[in-house]
Specification:
This protein has 8 helices and 11 strands. It is of the alpha+beta class and 211 residues long. The strands form 4 sheets. It has a 4-stranded mixed beta sheet, with helices on both faces. Strands 9-11-10 form a 3-stranded antiparallel beta sheet. Helix 1 packs across helix 5, helix 5 packs across helix 8 and helix 7 packs across helix 8. The two termini are 28 Å apart.
């Protein structure tokens, strides 16, 4: 599939920008709306993802024209193409058949496809909590400190309370949230991170977690 166009230039009708998370991948992630930005923040915390590409390619839909998906999420067991769009727009006479055709063509090429609507992205205000966790992730902490916290957490495969882990490691709760933001520790799928919430070592298989 051919490469897609670059992100469009700024205009009064859209909000475009870049998200840089060098601990996740070297390339910045572009977005063209606040809804796309919020989706990316959630995707950055999903342990299934190892890379996120914006407008990764162009797909020929025949008489329905060309289609450029918003994102491609890649991981060890994932090839997921994502369209981010307000729910009301997914049902329009133009978009509904285009999305259905894209899904069929992508399936033939071994990709999964999903439409991330505003209802899904903003469900339970998870995107707000994702923003906070990523803000903690941007801090710089000594490697010996983070290694100590991870080592202690690894002794609790069924989870340990955030406040208890911080106390055991003689550090702050912010340090624990930093490690959640960088996916060195896992947390519940709702991304609640009050002091009594459990965090888990990365790499486990608990289906209750953010996967």
């Amino acid at each position: 599939m051919p490469a897609a166009r670059k992100v469009v230039t700024r205009s009064p009708h859209r909000r475009v920008g870049l998200i840089a998370c060098p601990w996740f991948q070297p390339n910045v992630i572009e977005y063209e709306s606040l809804l796309e930005r919020d989706f990316v923040r959630l995707a950055l915390l999903d342990p299934e993802n190892s890379s996120i590409s914006h407008q990764p390619f162009s797909l020929d839909l025949g008489e329905l024209g060309n289609y450029v998906p918003d994102f491609l999420l890649m991981g060890r067991h994932r090839r997921l193409v994502v369209e981010v769009k307000p729910e009301e727009h997914t049902r329009s006479a133009r978009n509904k058949p285009r999305l259905a055709r894209a899904q069929g063509l992508l399936r033939e090429q071994g990709f999964h496809f999903m439409v991330a609507t505003d209802k899904l992205v903003h469900q339970g205000k998870r995107h707000v909590r994702a923003s906070v966790l990523l803000r903690h992730a941007r801090s710089r902490l000594p490697s010996e400190l983070t290694s100590r916290v991870i080592m202690i957490a690894s002794a609790f495969p069924k989870g340990i309370q955030i406040r208890k882990l911080a106390a055991e490691a003689q550090t702050s709760i912010q340090t624990v949230l930093h490690l959640v933001g960088r996916r060195h520790l896992r947390i519940n799928s709702a991304l609640h991170f009050d002091d009594n919430q459990l965090v888990y070592p990365s790499g486990g298989d608990d289906v209750r977690l953010h996967t």
